Amino acid sequence: PAHSMEELVSLCKRRGFIFQGSEIYGGLQGFYDYGPLGVELKNNLKAAWWRTNVYERDDMEGLDASIIMHRMVLRHSGHEATFSDPMVDNRKTKKRYRLDHLVKDQKADVIARVAEGIGESVDNFPAVVAALVAQPARAAEVLVAAGVRDPFSGEVGDWTEPKPFNMMFRTTIGPTADEDSFGYLRPETAQGIFTNFKNVVDSTSRRLPFGIAQIGKAFRNEITPRNFIFRVRELEQMEIEFFCAPGTDEDWHQHWLDARLAWWEAQGVPREKIQILDVPKEDLAHYSKRTYDLMYDYPTLGYEEIEGIANRSDYDLGSHTKSQGELGLVARVEENTDSIAKLTIPHPETNKPVVPFVIEPSAGVDRAMLAVLSEAFTKETLENGSERIVLKLRPHLAPIKVAVIPLARNREEITGVARAIKADLQKLGLGRVLYEDSGNIGKAYRRHDEVGTPYCVTVDFDTVGKGEDPNLTDTVTVRDRDTLAQERVKISELAGWIRERLR
Ligand code: ATP
Fold first, then answer.
1. From the CA of 125, how far away is ligand 1's center (Å)?
2. DSSP H/E element including 165
3. Which of 198, 373, 439, 449 could bond to 390 as cystine, CB 3.0-4.6 Å?
């Protein structure tokens, strides 16, 4: 695995996985562009998630809802009121920080003074942040007295009281001058699932338990985007809302925890690199009955959330439904007189209408990319003493499945065979097969090691009967990324050979 974020960032840029957004104008913070190889890896990762969670199950439907949503959706979801992070300003530099990030990044003695000043144990960091938020006037004094420095200037800041900063992006809709004609860019894909609950049930005749899966962009105006693609303002999520009868929710929560850990393992993220955080009651979001955060050991960052698996009780559908009073809701919800739909489904045993409980496994695509790249990243010393970087991606994730390399670039008899092989292998439908005639063979191998191409197929003079060994006519060399073994394979058997290994 990678040892530092820097070596990943460098590989991603050098080989065309990930670029800074709007780079030619100086870049835009918190926005990244996925390059030629990044888009392939990302598509493969999303396809793997979809395959496991939609195709291989019999209790799941898919959805692709729109990104811009009616403001009422985000009002009744609770996001208008509570989707915020605490922010502080430094009056001296006019820089603005997310409170918890600011404190966490200080030296240990400064953090200890902040904790002491606000009256909490330094060992319970979330409690320190909560206390700072709860006593804003005191918090400003404590930050200054503890000597909290501005990461930008390096000097002790003149800090304001922490204030909540709502992270939703809003945008005007239509050619109107009316202040109220705006919508929100969704801050999570989940809300599109809840608002389509009735549509999906009515159109598919689903009964409990069942789930709806969605992959798509979400937008969060993070105060301090950072750590490469770990915390960005435009992100992508892979979310499931799994609907079940109240009382069965705890078993389903456990089911999804196990299922999700198995999936990560199949993507090359081993179980021992993920810690399960059973989020303490006092840190739970207001809608959550219980949440498991999967914490992956990121290079440089250490353990940080890669996926959250929450038991959201009947909060979401209960918040968006009409006739709330008649439905015996368990969650505490705000009154809703705007919704025109009753979001119930027959209880599997009593057949009476019920608002189901929801289990939500929610994973970030960008954080998944980072984890998968980090696990695959390998630096090896070869037998001849030279070093190589190789991305040991699982074959189903590899951006390029096979590179077909003609050993001479301007010999038609060789390039013609190479192109025919490329076209043939492409038809297998395994993903991208690349015809590769740039530079020398050693460089091509090194490049394909670094981008994780499982096999390189080389067409040489022997292949076309113009080499030294007539027995090699109509055969090619296949080089294995991981073992470096080179094997001579008959062209007529090549497609089967590759298919067997890349299935
Ligand atoms: P954090 O505490 O790290 O800000 P969160 O608890 O707000 O994350 P959720 O709201 O649970 O995150 O979102 C579900 C998933 O979406 C996360 O596990 C993460 O993988 C991803 N995610 C959330 N915010 C971002 C972001 N700003 N950039 C990239 N991925 C994100």
1. 19
2. strand 163-166
3. 449
DSSP state for residue 289 in the 8-state scheme: S
State pLDDT tens for residues 416-452.
999 999 999 999 999 999 999 987 999 999 999 999 9
Distance from Cα 427 to the centre of ligand 1, integer Å: 38
Measured from the CA of 222, which atom of ligand 1 is nearest? 27
Mutational pocket test of ligand 1: of 77, 166, 305, the residue with most ligand atoms within 8 Å of the beta carbon:
305
Whether 198 contacts 343, CB under 8 Å: yes
> Could you tell me the two tokens for 230?
């770990």
Candidates 321, 337, 339; CA nearest to 329 is: 321
Only one residue has tokens 């990461």, namely 151
Token pair for residue 25? 């104008």
Which ipTM did the prediction report? 0.98
CB 89 within 8 A of CB 215: no
Strand order in the sheet with 68-70: 68-70, 182-185, 170-172
**Beta 402-406 vs 433-435: how paired, if at all?**
parallel
Cα dist from 457 to 16, 254, 460, 467, 495, whole Å = 22, 45, 10, 17, 11
The 10s digit of each residue's pLDDT in 111-140 is 999 999 999 999 999 999 999 999 999 999
Residue 286 makes CB contacts below 8 A (sequence gap 6+) with: 78, 82, 315, 332
Longest dimension (CA), the chain: 86
Is the shortest distance between the CB of 306 and ligand 1 below 6 Å?
yes
Give dist(CA 120, CA 342) in Å, integer. 45
pTM score: 0.95
CA distance 448 to 398: 10
